Amino acid sequence: MRRPEASFDAIGTRWSIHVDGPLDVVTLARVRSRIAAYDAVWSRFREDSLVAQISREPGTYRLPAEAGPLLDLYATLARCTDGAVSPLVGRSLVRLGYGADYALRAAGDAQAAPVWDDVLERDGDTLVVREPVLLDVGAAGKGQLVDLVAAELRDCGIEQFVVDAGGDLVHRGEEPFRVALQEPGDPTRAIGVVELEAAALCGSAVDRRAWGDGLHHVVDARTGLPTRDVTATWVVAESAMLADGLATAHFFADPDRLEAAFDHTYVRIAADGGVRYSLGLPGELFS
Amino acid sequence: MRTPRRTTIALVSGVSAVAALASCSSSGAATADTADETVSQPSDEATASEDTPVQSGLTDGTYSATGSYESPAGQETVAVSLTLADGVVTAVEVTPEATNPTSKQFQTKFASGVADVVVGQPVDGLSVDAVSGSSLTPEGFNDALAQIVADAQA
Questions:
Q1: What is the homologous superfamily of the domain A6-24+142-285 according to CATH?
Q2: What is the pTM of this model?
Q3: Could you give the percent of chain A with pLDDT greater than 70?
């Protein structure tokens, strides 16, 4: 399982699927199809997605099944971060230059995200959009998609596997998978290693997806400005969706508060280089 | 896990964690574990290592206290040491003292390590199966960034 059986590019990142033995074409087709279906709903980088439609027209929308757990997680993360984490930061990111056209130039002052209850109302899988709003599920959506791909593999009878979407991973099986934590700013170095076993690991860092002075993709919904205090986070949790969402939340909230609310371990690197981490982290940090 | 040599403080903030429980886990997102114990305010065994009493202003120094609380397994304690400099908390050290294994687990769960700095090692020299950092960026993003750099140099 050390070498991936399949690698491909999708949703703008490199995917690797590690299984014991060959990955059959039917399973791989299901995986690709699941990713395409998710992208068709949630991508804010394509005009034909559901998210793009919601950004243009008010109305009542039927959401897919994965929306419930995803938006519930966002709601809890919003409470834990006093509103800093929100799925409504789409226009804030566009204002900073990170839109579908990749302008990568700030267009005027920062724009705070709207408050959920002011513009949206959700009942189960029905979303009432009172004002057009640009959803961005970048904080937890990719992790959720990793979980959904894992579910496809399980449905196809595969019990032991690793799904790696550009460094966001889920591992199922007995033999641990060793993952290096990349040093912010230097892809050739690592600040530690996590031994991933029957768990998910997601990271978030502001070094690579940055496009100008202090401009990057981890944005505080309350101000519309990129956060400055933290430069990188990693979270190990039961699901990739949770790990991904918490990796973003750790940019904004006191770790104790998040540890009290969610079972997970974390590493957080502050802008001054200082590191805080869970003593229970399955792995080691180099210091 | 190997504890970093340069760890400056190890902190457990059980009390603040329990305060946080009330604030963001009301949706049921809290794990079942976290609600089994409640930590009361530390008892009055606090002893300041400096003589000046803390009144309106905060006096710098290191303060220690032992908090006790009633757990399902009986009375448990946790030790807290806190350093104030210029009126700001600069270090917190909490030592789990629970005797019951479950209580000890809860006290340890909220333990964090802090390191001044981590020293990166070359990934090539590590025996690893994958690397996790910031997500690989979309090609469109990288292309646009390259274009902007080119424009800036023109």
A1: ApbE-like domains (3.10.520.10)
A2: 0.76
A3: 97
